[in-house]
Amino acid sequence: MYNVNEKGYYGKFGGAYIPEMLYPNVEELRQNYLKIMAETAFQKEFQQLLKEYVGRPTPLYFAKRFSEKYKTKIYLKREDLCHTGAHKVNNTIGQILMAKRLGKNRIIAETGAGQHGVATATVCALMGLECIVYMGAIDIERQAPNVARMKMLGATVVPATSGSKTLKDATNEAIRDWINNPTNTHYIIGSVVGPHPYPDMVARFQSVISEEIKTQLQEKENRDAPDYVVACVGGGSNAAGAYYHYLDNPDVGIIAVEAAGKGVDSGESAATSALGKPGIIHGSKTLLMQTADGQITEPHSISAGLDYPGVGPMHAHLYASGRGEFISVTDAAAMQAGLQLCKLEGIIPAIETSHALAIFETRKFKSEAIVVINLSGRGDKDLSTYIDYFNL
Amino acid sequence: MNRIQEKLQENKKLLSIYFTAGYPTIEDTAPIIEALENNGVDMVEIGLPFSDPLADGPTIQASSTQALKNGMTTHKLFEQLEGIREKISIPLIIMGYFNPVLQYGVENFCKKCQEIGIDGLILPDLPLAEYQEHYQAIFEKHGVAIIFLITPQTSDARIRELDAASTGFIYMVSRASVTGSQKGFGEEQTNYFNRIAAMELKNPQIIGFGINNKETFQTATRRAKGAIIGSAFIKMITEQGIAGIPRFVKSIR
Ligand SMILES: Cc1ncc(COP(=O)(O)O)c(C=O)c1O
Fold first, then answer.
1. What pLDDT score was predicted for residue A370?
2. In angstroms, what separates the C-alpha of B91 from chain A's closest C-alpha?
3. Residue B1 has pLDDT above 90, yes or no
4. Of B36, B11, B33, which Cα lies nearest the Cα of B22?
5. Average pLDDT over chain B, rounded to whole?
6. The pTM of the whole model exceeds 0.95
7. Which of A20, A183, A281 comes nearest B154 by C-beta?
8. Which of A153, B42, B75, B156 could tie B14 with a disulfide, CB 3.0–4.6 Å?
């Protein structure tokens, strides 16, 4: 019910609104992705890399002091412990194997926080493929360590200088590159966005997160489903992975946390569900922050990975259908929550993830409730933002 | 027969010009169209600016950004085009991305086109299947033509489908690239132009993308019915303004 249908839609969201120049590439992928993913050899290679290269399964950690503070049972799914420091690599491993099977030898990607760029540069190094990463000029500044990492890994980082110079604009540039290079190039999109079949393919590669949560929770709590799964949503890939195996289980509450920036009504926000209307961005019909005239609005978030004016079509559908509970968290609340996790649990989270951690200040849970938060990434890349913000 | 079809029956190669509405200044839209017709241009694509033009290179991107800064909107464009048919008789086509049309309402948009005398739409990111399932009936009801794109990578089977659905001409994208390519035409283009000509499509073909001078215009129109110039025109008007139009058109043919 909450998964993609055969036409590439989640409810009334999704589809492939792409110019004809991209049609052969997207169609090739659409016709092949499920077949390739079902191959035994593909699964074997994918699972082995997740285990031995990424370091999966990632722990499901009971956060005792954090739980005591908020008087509920909070588990952290430690995607921050993945190789390269975030969940993004689950998807790039899958897509690089897909690209190889499609016979592509040139890889392009967009990146916001730089985590997806690093994860793409990493798998390209692993497979010996050329890698070009588009990144907004503003993000290049605020995520400098990740830019350096991509360069060390052999990728070419190309600044996107149009629009708000952030994730949306980097994605525009990557799509233009794909139009210009229609035969040898695979575009590794970093979230559950873009034209069908990307949202579904990326969600499937990330679904390992909830698959592991099920087994791990069974061991710890003697039940495989929590009462709530919480994740931050930029495009929505870590969230899609954390929700995936619970989508059709009505006993599991799904909580999506968006970036409110300086406040939902401040004019500087990225809270798409609150501010968006159905529209088309990057080849997908979804909720979109836009003017009455259909021009896409420049978003704002302190977190580069959430600084996007849309969400993946799966999340638009979770919102519109009422299946998901959407909460937005300001820059300030996220920064405090990030610092608090450092102090209470000794974990420095990515600022994206800090948004998910902040909901406990306002959203109360029963003391016996089991809440799993997807700890999507670690905060190393954000040190300069934390330092500036807290005058460390 | 509508204005596009009539024009396509004329016994000559057609020169079509794309420009961005509301650029260089907000008031230039109608004067540019008049100058183009007065200087013998056969058809005009009026670009409805969009914040995120995925299929466009730097020149058209910059003109769209500037047009939006100038205050261009869909409502404003229709206002500027009100009464245009008192002066202009060549076919007028609106070219733009789908989201602004969707937000205006596809039915309202087509109705407005019919009232004003806009003959057709080119919406590169409206896919064929969506058009057929949801919008074809609306376009037909209001007599608005739809023009689909093909590229050198488009398969023969799909070209046949796009040809069957198109109701004016087929827009042949000259190469796999965003607008504004300066690479000129080589063997790949010649082969592609010949291949399409040999398919004997229902619709005449007009070639666009990368046409920037007399030479590329002539190469393109050797087999096709006409050619569209976009980025090169916008570069010219950025530098010379409307006064540069007569010389620009003469330099092409
Ligand atoms: C750690 C982390 N979490 C979350 C995100 C947001 O992306 P998504 O919503 O696709 O998970 C990013 C994106 O860069 C990220 O680096």
1. 98
2. 23
3. no
4. B33
5. 97
6. yes
7. A20
8. B42
